[in-house]
Design goal:
Structural class: mainly alpha
Number of helices: 10
Number of strands: 2
Largest sheet: 2 strands, antiparallel
Shape: elongated
Length: about 240
Protein backbone atom coordinates (compact mmCIF):
# COMPACT_ATOMS: atom_id res chain seq x y z
CA UNK A 1 0.00 0.00 0.00
CA UNK A 2 1.26 3.49 -0.83
CA UNK A 3 2.43 5.25 2.32
CA UNK A 4 1.03 8.54 1.04
CA UNK A 5 -2.43 7.18 0.30
CA UNK A 6 -2.55 5.14 3.49
CA UNK A 7 -1.57 8.20 5.53
CA UNK A 8 -4.24 10.32 3.85
CA UNK A 9 -6.87 7.68 4.48
CA UNK A 10 -5.88 7.23 8.12
CA UNK A 11 -5.66 10.96 8.80
CA UNK A 12 -9.04 11.73 7.27
CA UNK A 13 -10.71 8.59 8.58
CA UNK A 14 -11.96 7.86 5.06
CA UNK A 15 -11.91 4.68 2.96
CA UNK A 16 -9.21 4.43 0.30
CA UNK A 17 -11.95 4.59 -2.33
CA UNK A 18 -12.90 8.09 -1.16
CA UNK A 19 -9.29 9.28 -1.09
CA UNK A 20 -8.71 8.10 -4.67
CA UNK A 21 -12.06 9.53 -5.79
CA UNK A 22 -11.24 12.96 -4.35
CA UNK A 23 -7.76 13.02 -5.88
CA UNK A 24 -8.97 12.04 -9.36
CA UNK A 25 -12.01 14.31 -9.20
CA UNK A 26 -9.88 17.35 -8.38
CA UNK A 27 -7.41 16.50 -11.17
CA UNK A 28 -10.26 16.17 -13.66
CA UNK A 29 -11.85 19.45 -12.61
CA UNK A 30 -8.55 21.33 -12.69
CA UNK A 31 -7.66 20.04 -16.15
CA UNK A 32 -4.68 17.99 -14.93
CA UNK A 33 -6.08 14.92 -16.71
CA UNK A 34 -6.32 15.63 -20.43
CA UNK A 35 -9.04 14.74 -22.91
CA UNK A 36 -8.09 11.53 -24.65
CA UNK A 37 -6.08 10.34 -21.66
CA UNK A 38 -7.07 6.85 -20.56
CA UNK A 39 -7.41 5.95 -16.91
CA UNK A 40 -7.10 2.24 -16.22
CA UNK A 41 -7.31 0.20 -13.07
CA UNK A 42 -3.80 -1.30 -13.42
CA UNK A 43 -2.12 2.08 -13.95
CA UNK A 44 -4.02 3.77 -11.14
CA UNK A 45 -3.42 0.83 -8.83
CA UNK A 46 0.32 1.18 -9.47
CA UNK A 47 0.20 4.95 -9.08
CA UNK A 48 -1.58 4.92 -5.73
CA UNK A 49 0.08 1.73 -4.54
CA UNK A 50 -3.19 0.06 -3.57
CA UNK A 51 -5.35 -2.80 -4.83
CA UNK A 52 -7.73 -2.44 -7.76
CA UNK A 53 -10.91 -2.68 -5.66
CA UNK A 54 -10.92 0.89 -4.26
CA UNK A 55 -9.70 2.14 -7.65
CA UNK A 56 -12.64 0.44 -9.38
CA UNK A 57 -15.08 1.85 -6.83
CA UNK A 58 -13.71 5.39 -7.25
CA UNK A 59 -13.94 5.16 -11.05
CA UNK A 60 -17.55 3.97 -10.78
CA UNK A 61 -18.51 7.02 -8.71
CA UNK A 62 -16.71 9.37 -11.11
CA UNK A 63 -18.75 7.86 -13.95
CA UNK A 64 -21.98 8.39 -12.04
CA UNK A 65 -20.90 12.00 -11.41
CA UNK A 66 -20.59 12.46 -15.17
CA UNK A 67 -16.87 13.27 -15.01
CA UNK A 68 -15.69 10.04 -16.67
CA UNK A 69 -17.11 7.69 -19.27
CA UNK A 70 -16.31 4.03 -19.70
CA UNK A 71 -14.43 3.15 -22.88
CA UNK A 72 -13.73 -0.22 -24.48
CA UNK A 73 -10.48 -0.13 -22.54
CA UNK A 74 -10.38 2.04 -19.45
CA UNK A 75 -12.03 5.38 -18.80
CA UNK A 76 -11.71 8.86 -20.32
CA UNK A 77 -12.76 12.37 -19.23
CA UNK A 78 -16.11 13.72 -20.38
CA UNK A 79 -15.90 17.02 -22.26
CA UNK A 80 -18.56 19.36 -20.80
CA UNK A 81 -20.85 21.00 -23.33
CA UNK A 82 -21.08 24.74 -22.71
CA UNK A 83 -24.34 25.16 -24.74
CA UNK A 84 -25.94 22.26 -22.83
CA UNK A 85 -24.86 23.74 -19.49
CA UNK A 86 -26.46 27.06 -20.41
CA UNK A 87 -29.68 25.34 -21.50
CA UNK A 88 -29.91 23.33 -18.28
CA UNK A 89 -29.23 26.38 -16.13
CA UNK A 90 -31.95 28.25 -18.01
CA UNK A 91 -34.30 25.36 -17.22
CA UNK A 92 -33.20 25.39 -13.59
CA UNK A 93 -33.82 29.14 -13.27
CA UNK A 94 -37.27 28.80 -14.87
CA UNK A 95 -38.26 25.97 -12.52
CA UNK A 96 -36.99 27.57 -9.32
CA UNK A 97 -38.36 31.01 -10.02
CA UNK A 98 -41.63 29.37 -10.99
CA UNK A 99 -42.10 28.24 -7.42
CA UNK A 100 -41.92 31.79 -6.12
CA UNK A 101 -43.83 33.26 -9.08
CA UNK A 102 -46.82 31.02 -8.52
CA UNK A 103 -47.02 32.28 -4.92
CA UNK A 104 -46.75 35.89 -6.14
CA UNK A 105 -49.48 35.34 -8.72
CA UNK A 106 -51.84 33.39 -6.48
CA UNK A 107 -52.36 34.56 -2.86
CA UNK A 108 -53.79 31.15 -2.02
CA UNK A 109 -50.38 29.55 -2.65
CA UNK A 110 -48.48 29.67 0.62
CA UNK A 111 -44.98 28.39 1.28
CA UNK A 112 -44.57 25.66 3.90
CA UNK A 113 -43.15 27.76 6.73
CA UNK A 114 -42.21 24.81 8.94
CA UNK A 115 -40.17 23.29 6.14
CA UNK A 116 -38.39 26.57 5.42
CA UNK A 117 -37.75 27.37 9.08
CA UNK A 118 -36.12 23.97 9.54
CA UNK A 119 -34.00 24.62 6.45
CA UNK A 120 -33.02 28.02 7.81
CA UNK A 121 -31.84 26.48 11.08
CA UNK A 122 -29.72 24.04 9.12
CA UNK A 123 -28.04 26.82 7.15
CA UNK A 124 -27.51 28.94 10.25
CA UNK A 125 -25.60 25.99 11.69
CA UNK A 126 -23.50 25.81 8.50
CA UNK A 127 -22.83 29.55 8.75
CA UNK A 128 -21.58 29.12 12.31
CA UNK A 129 -19.33 26.24 11.29
CA UNK A 130 -18.70 26.35 7.51
CA UNK A 131 -17.77 23.03 5.90
CA UNK A 132 -14.55 22.38 4.04
CA UNK A 133 -14.15 24.10 0.66
CA UNK A 134 -14.74 21.19 -1.68
CA UNK A 135 -16.90 20.25 -4.68
CA UNK A 136 -19.02 17.70 -2.79
CA UNK A 137 -20.87 20.62 -1.18
CA UNK A 138 -22.95 20.73 -4.35
CA UNK A 139 -25.15 17.95 -2.93
CA UNK A 140 -26.06 20.02 0.13
CA UNK A 141 -26.64 23.01 -2.12
CA UNK A 142 -29.07 21.00 -4.24
CA UNK A 143 -30.99 20.05 -1.12
CA UNK A 144 -31.57 23.73 -0.33
CA UNK A 145 -32.97 24.49 -3.77
CA UNK A 146 -35.16 21.38 -3.80
CA UNK A 147 -36.50 22.24 -0.34
CA UNK A 148 -37.27 25.82 -1.37
CA UNK A 149 -39.22 24.63 -4.39
CA UNK A 150 -40.92 21.84 -2.43
CA UNK A 151 -42.18 24.45 0.04
CA UNK A 152 -44.04 26.14 -2.83
CA UNK A 153 -46.20 23.05 -3.22
CA UNK A 154 -45.82 21.90 -6.84
CA UNK A 155 -44.45 18.35 -6.92
CA UNK A 156 -44.02 18.34 -10.71
CA UNK A 157 -41.74 21.38 -10.58
CA UNK A 158 -39.70 19.60 -7.92
CA UNK A 159 -39.46 16.43 -9.99
CA UNK A 160 -38.26 18.40 -13.01
CA UNK A 161 -35.69 20.30 -10.91
CA UNK A 162 -34.24 17.07 -9.50
CA UNK A 163 -33.84 15.76 -13.04
CA UNK A 164 -32.08 18.96 -14.18
CA UNK A 165 -29.84 18.91 -11.10
CA UNK A 166 -28.68 15.38 -11.82
CA UNK A 167 -27.58 16.43 -15.32
CA UNK A 168 -25.53 19.44 -14.21
CA UNK A 169 -24.20 18.16 -10.89
CA UNK A 170 -20.80 17.28 -12.34
CA UNK A 171 -20.24 20.77 -13.76
CA UNK A 172 -21.74 22.55 -10.74
CA UNK A 173 -18.93 21.05 -8.67
CA UNK A 174 -16.69 23.70 -10.24
CA UNK A 175 -18.78 26.29 -8.41
CA UNK A 176 -17.48 25.19 -5.02
CA UNK A 177 -13.78 25.06 -5.89
CA UNK A 178 -13.62 28.86 -5.69
CA UNK A 179 -12.34 30.48 -2.48
CA UNK A 180 -15.17 31.71 -0.23
CA UNK A 181 -17.82 30.33 -2.58
CA UNK A 182 -19.28 28.14 0.17
CA UNK A 183 -19.48 31.07 2.60
CA UNK A 184 -21.07 33.20 -0.13
CA UNK A 185 -23.60 30.48 -0.91
CA UNK A 186 -24.57 30.13 2.75
CA UNK A 187 -25.12 33.89 3.08
CA UNK A 188 -27.20 34.06 -0.09
CA UNK A 189 -29.31 31.06 0.86
CA UNK A 190 -30.15 32.60 4.23
CA UNK A 191 -31.10 35.91 2.59
CA UNK A 192 -33.46 34.06 0.21
CA UNK A 193 -35.04 32.11 3.06
CA UNK A 194 -35.48 35.27 5.15
CA UNK A 195 -37.20 37.04 2.27
CA UNK A 196 -39.65 34.16 1.73
CA UNK A 197 -40.36 33.81 5.44
CA UNK A 198 -40.92 37.59 5.64
CA UNK A 199 -43.35 37.15 2.71
CA UNK A 200 -41.34 39.60 0.61
CA UNK A 201 -41.65 37.40 -2.46
CA UNK A 202 -40.53 39.97 -5.05
CA UNK A 203 -37.25 40.34 -3.11
CA UNK A 204 -36.92 36.56 -2.80
CA UNK A 205 -37.46 36.26 -6.55
CA UNK A 206 -34.69 38.78 -7.31
CA UNK A 207 -32.27 37.26 -4.82
CA UNK A 208 -32.80 33.75 -6.15
CA UNK A 209 -32.42 34.87 -9.76
CA UNK A 210 -29.14 36.65 -8.98
CA UNK A 211 -27.88 33.72 -6.90
CA UNK A 212 -28.34 31.14 -9.66
CA UNK A 213 -27.06 33.49 -12.35
CA UNK A 214 -23.84 34.22 -10.47
CA UNK A 215 -23.36 30.49 -9.93
CA UNK A 216 -23.63 29.96 -13.69
CA UNK A 217 -20.98 32.60 -14.33
CA UNK A 218 -18.56 30.91 -11.93
CA UNK A 219 -19.25 27.45 -13.36
CA UNK A 220 -18.77 28.52 -16.97
CA UNK A 221 -15.53 30.35 -16.18
CA UNK A 222 -14.01 27.35 -14.41
CA UNK A 223 -15.35 24.78 -16.87
CA UNK A 224 -14.00 26.79 -19.80
CA UNK A 225 -10.59 27.03 -18.14
CA UNK A 226 -10.54 23.31 -17.38
CA UNK A 227 -11.59 22.43 -20.93
CA UNK A 228 -8.75 24.56 -22.27
CA UNK A 229 -6.23 22.88 -19.97
CA UNK A 230 -7.52 19.39 -20.76
CA UNK A 231 -7.42 20.09 -24.50
CA UNK A 232 -3.80 21.27 -24.64
CA UNK A 233 -2.35 17.77 -24.95
CA UNK A 234 -4.86 16.64 -27.57
CA UNK A 235 -4.82 19.54 -30.03
Amino acid sequence: MSTRVATLADAAGRPLRDVVYTALRDELMNGDIKFGERLTEPKLSARFGISRTPIREALTVLCSDGLLRREEYGFSPVRPSIPLIRDLYELRITLELGGIQRAIGNPEVRHDRALLEAERESWLALQADPPEQEPGFVVRDEEFHVTLLTAAGNAELVRALKSANSRIRHVRMYDFMVNNRIETTITEHLAILDAVLDEDLPLAYRLLHTHIGESLDVVLERVTRAIAAMSMATE
